[in-house]
Design a protein that fits this description.
Blueprint (H helix, E strand, L loop, with lengths): L9 E4 L2 H11 L3 E5 L3 E6 L2 E7 L8 E6 L3 H10 L8 E2 L4 E2 L4 E5 L3 E9 L5 E9 L26
Parallel strand pairs: 1-4, 5-10
Antiparallel strand pairs: 2-3, 3-4, 6-7, 8-9, 9-10
């Protein structure tokens, strides 16, 4: 069933060798498999797939790395030469300060920073902190195990 499947971000790159070096050497991702047209990386138990193709343009985040401390990651990546993007998008409540934005909803506080890979793909480092636990259906009184959980958008 698709709901039990891993999701693999799949990113287009123009210069596969340049992108390979960036993800392997700068970001420190491990190569799982590669051929002349693609590279599969492993990061934190997930995969990231790069494939060679003509130029494309995405003006949105294509992959996020969940980290424990965004500021620490930003400092480490800056030491490796990565430049972080600055955004001011009032309609989204998004404004970066020194490359980092902290946004808050009713359910989460999200700290994020965005940067581009060598091919122009927008990547992010992010840490999301739940402000409270979602409500769950715990089943009838005296039940030994929780009942099925169901969530809707208001839970997040």
């Amino acid at each position: 069933m698709i709901s039990n499947s891993k999701v693999t971000p799949t990113l287009p790159v123009v210069d596969l060798e340049r992108a390979r070096r960036f993800y392997r050497d700068t970001l420190g991702l491990k190569i799982s498999a590669e051929d002349s047209m693609s590279v599969l990386f492993e990061a934190g138990g997930c995969n990231l797939y790069l494939y060679k193709r003509a130029p494309t343009k995405a003006d949105h985040t294509v992959a996020s790395f969940e980290v424990d401390d965004v500021r620490k990651e930003v400092d480490e990546l800056r030491r490796k030469g990565i430049k972080f993007e600055e955004y001011d998008i009032p309609e989204m409540g998004l404004k970066t300060v020194n490359g980092i934005a902290t946004m808050r909803s009713e359910q989460f506080e999200n700290t994020s920073a965005w940067f581009k890979d060598t091919e122009g793909n927008i990547l992010a480092v992010v840490h999301m902190t739940p402000l409270h636990q979602p409500q769950t259906n715990r089943g009838p009184v005296g039940a030994t195990a929780p009942g099925p959980q169901s969530y809707d958008e208001s839970d997040y």
